[in-house]
Design brief:
Length: 169
């Protein structure tokens, strides 16, 4: 009998996030993601809830309206700046920029567009305003060890390091 996902089970899965309207894959996680169910929430609560009771080999689709999680898009968080005013290291799409306001609060922005004259950065979550499908494939479900429960995931041994000393020739 297959183990089912419930509290204190170690789970490995892969997933992709698909824009429901366009069918575009927004995020793809191919390397197995491991966690201990009920100890840490690695994905949104709606996704974690839908994993409950599933088992190895199951593929599930979870429909999520991201407006409920992140709220609607806030266009005041989209900034278009002259490229000359932006340091070179921030002129690449996908670059994260941590910004601070006058009150010392920080917020992460993402470079979303770069052209010959401007750089656009966006402080909205990339899923904001979208309806998405989380397509998850469950690769493994087993009892978690006490150590995995303590740390919330797989605990691997540190690599062996040989201490070689250089000797002058």
């Amino acid at each position: 009998m297959k183990d089912i996902i419930e509290a204190n089970k170690y789970v490995e899965l892969t997933y992709k996030v698909i824009d429901q309207k366009t069918g575009q894959v927004l995020t793809l996680v191919e390397f197995p993601l491991g966690y201990v169910h009920g100890v840490n929430e690695i994905l949104s609560p709606q996704v974690m809830q839908q994993l409950e009771g599933k088992s190895e080999g199951d593929i599930i689709d979870v429909y999520i309206d991201c407006n409920e999680i992140y709220g609607p898009r806030d266009e005041s968080l989209v900034i278009i700046e002259a490229i000359a005013n932006v340091p070179k290291e921030y002129r690449e799409i996908g670059t994260a920029i941590l910004m601070e306001n006058d009150n010392g609060q920080t917020k992460s922005f993402l470079v979303t567009r770069v052209d010959a004259k401007t750089v656009t950065i966006d402080g909205n979550n990339p899923l904001c305003g979208r309806e998405v499908i989380f397509k998850l494939e469950i690769l493994m479900v087993r009892d978690a060890t006490e150590e995995e429960i303590q740390y919330g995931g797989k605990v691997e041994a540190a690599p062996e390091i040989n201490n070689y000393h250089s000797v002058p020739i």
